Amino acid sequence: MAKSSAEVSAYCPNPKCGKPIYSDHAYTWCIECGEPLPDNIQEQIPRLQTSRASSAAARSSQPATQSERLSSRELLERLVKLQEQQNENIAVIRKHTGCFYAWLIFTIVIGILVFLIFHH
Question: CB of 30 within 8 A of CB of 17?
């Protein structure tokens, strides 16, 4: 992997890896070994600070209250309803696809008949 021109902010906390983490690093894990970067390393990387701030703002603007949380049963019911809608959509697509192929075959047959009639 090519080295970055940015400064080294820290090193991977995985003792088997220890690769440098540069100041322009874009992930919350080491791209060499996949080790999650601890908060103290993430705080040293400007790009991750911005990402963490926007994530925190999004979470705080939409707090989940007890009344908004769904039970497993409600989630399952919603999932079943979505699956039924998806099945209906697939059925409609299959119906229209079948109609398209029937029209295509009809058009080809008519074209062949016209060709045979007018070229004899």
Answer: yes
Pairing of strands 20-22, 8-11: antiparallel
Q: Which amino acid is at 18?
A: G
- The domain segmentation of the chain, as residue ranges, is 8-60, 70-120
Say what the pLDDT of residue 63 is: 55
What single-letter amino acid sits at 61? Answer: S
% helix / strand / coil in the chain, to the nearest 5? 55, 10, 35
d(CA 85, CA 6): 50
E strand or H helix that includes residue 102: helix 72-118
For the question of whether the overall pTM of this predicted structure is more than 0.70, the answer is: no
Phi, psi (rounded to 5 degrees) for 117: -70, -45
Give me the DSSP letters along 60-99.
HHSPPPTTT---HHHHHHHHHHHHHHHHHHHHHHHHHHHH
For residue 119, pLDDT over 50 is answered with yes
